[in-house]
Specification:
The structure is a single chain. The chain has 405 residues and is an alpha/beta fold. The protein has two domains: 2-20 and 214-404, Enolpyruvate transferase domain (UDP-n-acetylglucosamine1-carboxyvinyl-transferase, Chain), CATH 3.65.10; 22-210, UDP-n-acetylglucosamine1-carboxyvinyl-transferase, Chain (Alpha-beta prism), CATH 3.65.10.10. Helices cover 29% and strands 24% of the residues. The protein has twelve helices and 21 strands. It has a four-stranded mixed sheet, with helices on one face. Strands 4-5-7-6 form a four-stranded mixed sheet, covered by helices on one side. Helix 1 (22-34) crosses helix 6 and helix 7 runs parallel beside helix 9. The longest helix is centred in the N-terminal third of the chain and has 13 residues, at 22-34. The chain is globular.
Amino acid sequence: MSIRLFHPTQHIEGTINLTSSKSESNRVLIIQALCDTSFGINNLAAAKDTQTLQQLLISSEKTLDVGHAGTVMRFLTAYLSLQEEEHTITGSSRMKERPIKVLVDALRTLGAEIDYLENEGFPPLKIRGYQMEGGTISIDGSVSSQYVSALLLIAPQLQSGLTIEFKGEIISKPYINMTLSIMNYFGAQTSWSNNNIVVKNGKYQAKEITVEADWSSASYWYGIAALSKTTTINLLGLKKDSLQGDAALYKIYENFGVKTTWINGGICLTKTDNCVTSFNYNFEDCPDIAQTVAVTCAALNINSQLTGLKTLRIKETDRVFALQTELNQLGYHVTVEDNDILIRSSSALVMPNIHPIKTYDDHRMAMAFAPLALINATQIENEDVVIKSYPDFWKDLQQVGFTID
């Protein structure tokens, strides 16, 4: 299946109740499962990943299938290591290609019994859980923050707590800070000094919580604003003091003529004439918005260098390769050096070629390329992938005047 998008006026106006953060939702669900007393979660994400985690946490099945959900695979691997049962955890064919050795090695050091059922270092896994002692582990700071967050979330349940000693520079710090902040909200005792995080043994305390809207999903609206003629769009549910690293968006998009104003209950985006001619940015702290920014830079014909993209290689697809391939197919000039994306402007480029956008089973590919419909009719294949994080995305686009057929 594929859809064709177009916007007849390029003028964007409306109010969007933005989808909830699956990053926050998934962390809160693990804490809820570990807590002795149930508590209310307001504004839980409708994302498929979150629904999958919610269902698997209460499942009585011994084999749990996470599908494409990488965060669910990592978080459940750690969670199941504490449950006094034996489980098999598996996923899609792509999931079986995504590494998990760093997390498994750390859990084994803490006392977990985990076996690889197919290829060494990759799912599926057999996990025999029980109460683990805990202690001190050493982790390369450049690995995915999901491994670190998975360990942190179970840390209060470990008999001796947990100390994580990082080797080298730590990437994706905002995601780790998000995890620690949510843990602290529920009563965990944590400290982060230099390259060491310490979590003391203890119990989570039940406490009602409201999940913030998703800044990653807001990125597509920033992309739309940047490519529009005029924009006045309200995005509800976002906080100025957000825990999400992707809140860096509002500063990044000032470079592309998008102004953010804080309003009651969210933000308002408006279009300005201020746009740079060159752009360099390191996305180590906010890799999930790199695809959207790459498409924006290409569409605005801005010389750009996007760095800090190492973790994009092991997502739902190799996002660096996918971005390069699809942007070049559209007629933009994109090269890759190691893990960096280089976009070169062209005086001959007027509008992108009409070329069906492949999504590579990646929700962010579909949504990052959607703003191009403001320049030219755009066809996107496998449009249903958006349910992974933003199920109402296409409906929300129609609400502000996009035609979709």
